[in-house]
Amino acid sequence: QVQLVESGGGLVQPGGSLRLSCAASGNIFSVNAMGWYRQTPGKERALVAAVTVGATTGYADSVKGRFTISRDNNKNAVYLQMHRLEPEDTAIYYCNTARGTLGGIYYGSALETWGQGTQVTVSS
Hints:
- This protein has 124 residues and is mainly β.
- Helix content is 0%, strand content 49%.
- It has strands at 4-7, 10-12, 18-24, 34-39, 46-51, 57-59, 67-72, 77-82, 91-97, 99-102, 105-108, 118-122.
- The strands form 3 sheets. A 6-stranded mixed sheet has the order 2-12-9-4-5-6, with no helix packed on it.
- It is globular, with a radius of gyration of 13 Å.
- The N and C termini lie far apart (40 Å).
């Protein structure tokens, strides 16, 4: 069974930056688009960034131009570099295979079991 472990969250001031990392125990990276999701209380988990096996990326409008997703298939890892963070970015961030629509492109990977996520809090 694949295990996903997210890290790198924390408390940051508005305008600051964070880099999230995700490591997977199984070899799912070579065949799946990967994604970062976020969830706030009372709302559904939403895909905010995705990267295909060929490293093509897609982003939600709310993070486009501020977040960058990348992957390292050799390390079974996916990253989310976040700049110019806003209070609205406060959420628990999760990685998983990409499933959802970004920029008109549908990512249809089957989801793995969710990890614990990593909390990102943007506050002064």
